[in-house]
Amino acid sequence: MAKDGASGYADLYESSLLPLDEGNEPNVYAQVIVDVPAKQTNRPFDYVVPEELRAWIGIGSRVGVPFGPRTLQGFVVGLSAKSDMAAGKLKKIEQVLDLVPPLNPELVQLADWMSRTYVCHEITALQAMIPGALKAKYEKMIAVADRPERIDSRQPSDGEGQTMLFAGSAEEDAIVAFVRQKSAVSTEAMLNRFPDSGPLLKHMLEQGTLVEVQTVKDRLQAKRILYVEPAAEAEALLEHSRSLPSNAKRQMEVLAYFSENPEPVPLSELSEKLNVGAGTVKGLAEKGWLTVREREVFRDPYEGRKFDRTSPLPLTEQQREALDPISSSLDKKEHNVFLLHGVTGSGKTEVYLQAIQQCLDQGREAIVLVPEISLTPQMVERFKGRFGDAVAVMHSRLSQGERYDEWRKIGLKRVSVVIGARSAVFAPFANLGLIIIDEEHESSYKQEESPKYHARDVAIQRASRHGAAVVLGSATPSLESFARTGMRSSDGAGNEAAPYRLLTMADRVEGRPLPAVHIVDLREELKEGNRSMFSRGLYKAIEERLHKKEQTVLLLNRRGYSTFVMCRSCGFVVQCPHCDISLTYHQVSRSMRCHYCGLSQPEPKTCPSCDSEHIRYFGTGTQRVEEELGKLFPGIRVIRMDVDTTSEKGSHERLLTRFRNKQADVLLGTQMVAKGLDFPDVTLVGVIAADTVLHLPDFRAAEKTFQLLTQVAGRAGRHKLPGEVFIQTYTPDHYSIVTASGHDYKAFLDNELEMRKMRGYPPYCELALVTFSHEQVPMLVRAGESFVARLKDSWQRSRHKTEADRSPYDASTSYFEVYGPVASPIPRIKDRYRFQCMVKYRVGVDVSGMLTETAAAFDETVRQEKLLISIDVNPQVLM
Ligand SMILES: Nc1ncnc2c1ncn2[C@@H]1O[C@H](COP(=O)(O)OP(=O)(O)OP(=O)(O)O)[C@@H](O)[C@H]1O
Ligand SMILES: [Zn+2]
Ligand SMILES: [Zn+2]
Q1: What angle do CA 588, 586, 689 make, to 5 degrees?
Q2: In sequence order, what are the beta bridge partners of 555?
Q3: Which end of the chain is more exposed for a tag (fewer CB within 10 A), N or C?
Q4: Once rounded to an integer, what is the mean pLDDT over residues 688-700?
């Protein structure tokens, strides 16, 4: 058959299978990505758009399409007048799942970009953009075997059998008519209608008169409730009322009510208000005096909550200087990325709010991303307080229904601001003006499962297509972002064109001072006989707060719990001699290993540095801290906030509200207590052990330590009362701790950049991590080594290609190294061993392309040997 598109179209006209009218609309074909995340299906398939569905199908529509023997959900990613496929092979779209496409052309293009950038299937990217409620649910239904429609390449038609179709009994005819009328019927509905038809149905299915089809359903429907409204004017209602028998008191009351309140009211509300049953209302509806109808409602997670309206604050000079460039970028509808570096309490939120106001005034829309953990009522209040019902809120603690409804408000244009965690970056706005990412340094903006995207990069992609501004805000910007504000390119870091613009707010509002920070050397405490987890300084400070009725925040970071080995006498941490990261302790083998180079050595009995015997793996739990607080300060009221106490829905908020209402003296917790909280009476912050993050086997360990300490310190003294901070540590001289105590981001940056440059880590290069897992180690080693060899080979080939047309002076970007394979830091999960290799490269190298190509060569092994290969471009977690 003709491959050429035009003649393919002509073929269709002749084809008896697809009778098309003359003078058709041009968009007769749809390109559909189907819901099968596999390499073979990772491309659009052509389908015919039937005449009757044409009005409903657009780019971004969800459809049900026949695929092999099944019906699958798919996304329409293109529409065209031509198809390269042979006409006889094309099937029709069976269903459209939404009246309005849930995605738009821009998001569909974004999915394509994501699949190429993050090495994932396009369907995986598309699915990540819609709420869980819209993920496909498949249901078996019965349909009439409509031969012409069902004929396809797999099922050559010989015309036989069709003539037999209606040669059945009267009951068979009735069944066929019934099914035909409904297009498809569930077995259940069928047996309801024809109670004894079980055997006949089976026979009809076997015979081929009926077929079993699979249809696509939503997991969740929009919620509908019954509303009652008057069907006549007030006068007429009262007249009807007078015509009722005198004992129909209830009915009279209802009519009287509607004569005064003509607006529709939910049936349940009416029943409650007037104390009448549904029967009374039904009686009146049957008389034609009232109308009862179903209406869609939104499940509102903030229903009944009042948000006091706020108006814009007069800006401080620093806020004004930060807002101006954003403002003029919005004015020009230019795409720009701003990095707003503002110290804790400098009033970044007010800058966001006023920028959003301007964006809304332009008739454009805004997205605000915040880390899940700081999506507290306090944060929501600030946005709802300023923009009221124009705000939708999306976070994971909403029920699936609530999430779906908040999301639907976007498509229905009921809201123009979305505030949410990572996935809110996909809010299907069509006219975006501004995307704000608060606490931009947070690693939770990176999704750890496929698609392994970073919300910051996705936001910038989207904004560039909309001519929108992006504001990345933080008191402790990530090194990667800061580098993009224009570090000298001779460093090799950042782009010469400085893709981000830096905006700085160096002071807290109203001249409030940053808190005074004390570093406490825990080795000294031990020397002086204090074996408690509280230093004398911190102890006294807590005691003082209890006395003054002020509040304390205590941070205990449990990340890295028990995994590194440290000397309690001198603070020495056992490190890899080749990689400058701490070795990870393995309890089972009592050994320590390096996860970058594979070095392994036994656990030391004494400290290699000071010979002390107090060397062991390190860690403390929040529960133990709570117990000790109770012992030291009898009667102290502690709120403990960690994974154990916050697993229940709403518990996080409840705990914070209790703390805000001063029902506790101390808020003790993990990283959760470090971010975004703004409580006026918190004047003391204590960090139990600052070292826990510092020694993680992660090149970002120092950066994370600095960020965490700066953020948690920033909770103290944000209002009238001045704050004080105690950082307890075994490594008081580490630059991340020293610079954090001085609130000195620049000094930290200088130190850290030096380190990164020396060791070759971002922002001096980019990373990609490939993790292999399998039940058997030899298999892994073989696969890993062969993967690395192929990848290097792919690089050699592509380098020769690109170097041919590069000027001899430009060698700077040509950088590509592969390290490993070595065992992963978590060497076994669920009985599968894990190996990894790390790729270091510079921007300009198409690492995603090379990884895709290399991985493709392992398809067979992956399938036959159950080998798993996971690719993470720009990983945040190296485990
Ligand atoms: N222009 C202003 N005039 C008076 N008060 C202000 C102004 N701007 C902000 N504030 C107040 O200053 C406090 C700190 O502001 P905000 O919480 O926005 O800081 P932030 O920069 O986001 O800090 P963090 O990074 O610690 O979250 C808030 O209580 C806020 O209401
Ligand atoms: Zn020691
Ligand atoms: Zn090493």
Answers
A1: 130
A2: 669, 687
A3: N
A4: 82
Residue 20 pLDDT: 39
CB 640 within 8 A of CB 672: no
Sign of CA dihedral 726, 727, 733, 734: negative
Taking the centre of ligand 3 as the mean of its atom positions, its distance from the CA of residue 578, in whole angstroms, is 5
ipTM of this complex: 0.94
Which ligand neighbours the alpha carbon of 593 most closely?
3
Q: Which residues touch 135 (CB under 8 Å, ≥6 apart)?
A: 127, 219
Burial of residue 55, with CB atoms counted within 10 A of its CB: 0-12 exposed, 13-18 middle, 19 or more buried: exposed
| 688 within 8 A of 728, measured Cβ to Cβ | yes
The CATH class of the 766-873 domain is: alpha beta
Pocket test for ligand 1, best of 350, 474, 510 (most atoms within 8 A of CB): 350
Domains 326-510 and 512-561+619-759 share a fold: yes
pTM of the model: 0.76
* Average pLDDT of the residues in 76-82: 90
Note the pLDDT of residue 463. Answer: 97
Fold of 5-216: GIY-YIG endonuclease (3.40.1440)
CATH code 3.40.50.300 for 326-510? yes
In the three-class reduction of DSSP (H, G, I as helix; E, B as strand; rest coil), residue 423 is classed as helix
Residue 478 identity: S
Confidence of residue 457 (pLDDT cuts 50, 70, 90): very high
CB 455 within 8 A of CB 427: no
The predicted-structure confidence for 119-145, as pLDDT tens digits, reads as follows 999 999 999 998 877 776 667 778 787
The side-by-side arrangement of strands in the sheet containing 70-80 is 91-92, 45-48, 29-34, 70-80, 62-67, 95-96
Quote the CA–CA distance of 1 and 529 in Å, as a whole number: 89
Structure tokens at 188: 């259940």
CATH classification (class only), 512-561+619-759: alpha beta
pLDDT digits (tens, 9 = 90+) for 576-598: 777 666 777 766 677 787 766 67
Pocket test for ligand 1, best of 341, 346, 679, 685 (most atoms within 8 A of CB): 346
**Which residue's C-alpha comes closest to atom 7 of ligand 1?**
347
Characterise 102 by phi-psi region: left (phi > 0), alpha (psi -120 to 50), beta (else). Answer: alpha
% the chain with pLDDT above 70: 85
Q: Which helix (H) or strand (E) holds 735?
A: helix 735-741
Kindly list the domain boundaries of the chain, sorted by start residue.
Answer: 5-216, 326-510, 512-561+619-759, 563-618, 766-873
pLDDT tens for each residue of 185-202: 877 777 778 877 778 888
SS3 label, residue 230: strand
Which among 66-75, 315-324, 696-705, 853-862 has the top mean pLDDT?
Answer: 315-324
C-alpha distance from residue 553 to each of 119, 438, 691, 743 (Å): 42, 22, 18, 18
Q: What is the DSSP letter of 430?
A: S
Q: Where does 463-499 show beta strands of DSSP type E? A: 469-474
- How many Å lie between the centroid of ligand 1 and the Cα of residue 683? 16
To the question of whether residue 765 is assigned a binding role by annotation, the answer is: no
Residue of the nearest CA to atom 25 in ligand 1?
344
Residue type, 64: G
Reduced to 3 states, what is the DSSP secondary structure of residue 224?
strand
